[in-house]
Amino acid sequence: MMSREDTMTYRAAILAAALLSGMFATFSSSAQAADPVKIRVGWIVMPSNLAPILFAKAGIGRHNDKSYVLDPVYFSSSSAEITALATEQIDIAAMGFSTLPLAIENAGLKDLRLLADEVQDGNGSGFTLQFMVRRDSNINSVTDLKGKVLATIGIGTGAHTGMLATLQKFGLQDKRDYTVIETPFPTMKGMLKDGKAELIAVTTGFAADPELKSIARTLFTQKDGMGPSALSFWAARSGFIAKNRAALVDFLEDSVRATRWYKDPANRKEAVEIVAKAIKQPPERIAPWLFSDNDDFYRDPDLAINLTALQSNVDLLQKLGIIKTGIQVAQYSDASLLNEALARLK
């Protein structure tokens, strides 16, 4: 049996151990909370997707490496991003109007939430995809494409949708009235020069090619076929958002700051140099169009998604028979994080 003095000593030791245990738990919890959240963001092509160089300018990503760590992940297609998002290999996917319905209908991502915008086609004076024919051809109207071979970057892509919509307006139907072949943007010019296709799709950068301009002319644009389109925007799953909301708000704040920096004419020379180094192109080749108001895709300075355009785009997909059921895009939008981030920048 312990003496009174021994009992007091024993109790003091127990109390000290408990205090130390509590202090250690608090310290451990604080250290864990302080660990930055890794945010894996999918991207396909620069500079439409800026994720790999978003914080290339020192000081823009003020919260990066603190509350979060940006981890850009390359994909060859948006469909691959859908799979990665569904299997939790990435946290944010770069999607467009043509892939959003596929993610919801085919991949079953009902918990998808739209967070922020990247680029839009045909908004205001911004660039819109060009559909071009040879200058020396006898194709002077859309109806002249009957019986021709038309090139697109992929069946079911945004470019393909814009082409289908325009042709349908003029009564031309796929397979019955024309043939569609697939080829990437870099090979479009060669396909037109060699006569392998009589209509090609041309995006930013390629549209500024002097040789292409000398041999080709624009017959119609993506905007002609479907109006403004939501070309690329960020989407994440609700579970990841709920778990990492604070870090995501920090990330969106930094992303808005970065986008505004890239778009600022005062930073144009440095911005062009950053992109040129990243895509391994001479600065003078991309300077005429990059981040311009007329020759580059529209970038919203607040990263606000154009839900009106997106809904119109998705409705068109259903009308064309590309998707089976209608989707109300507003129910998948969560602008609360972006609004919180924007409030800090005022």
Search tags:
globular, three-stranded antiparallel sheet, 2 domains, D-Maltodextrin-Binding Protein, domain 2, 346 residues
Report on this structure:
The chain is α/β, with parallel strands linked by helices. The chain folds into two domains: 207 residues, 3-Layer(aba) Sandwich (D-Maltodextrin-Binding Protein, domain 2), CATH 3.40.190; 97 residues, Periplasmic binding protein-like II (D-Maltodextrin-Binding Protein, domain 2), CATH 3.40.190.10. Helices cover 40% and strands 17% of the residues. It is built from 13 helices and ten strands. Strands 3-10-4 form a three-stranded antiparallel β-sheet. Helix 4 links the parallel strand 6 and strand 7. The radius of gyration is 26 Å and the shape is globular. The termini are far apart. About 6% of the residues have low confidence.
Radius of gyration: 26 Å
Q: Helices and strands: which structural class?
A: alpha/beta
Q: Provide the helix percentage.
A: 40-55%
Strand order of the largest sheet: 3-10-4
- By CATH, the architecture of the largest domain is named 3-Layer(aba) Sandwich
How many domain regions?
Answer: 2
CATH class of the largest domain: Alpha Beta
What is the CATH third-level topology name of the largest domain? D-Maltodextrin-Binding Protein, domain 2
Cα end-to-end separation: 70 Å
Taking the sheet with the most strands, its summary is: 3 strands, antiparallel
Q: What oligomeric state best describes the polypeptide chains here? A: single chain
Principal-axes shape call = globular
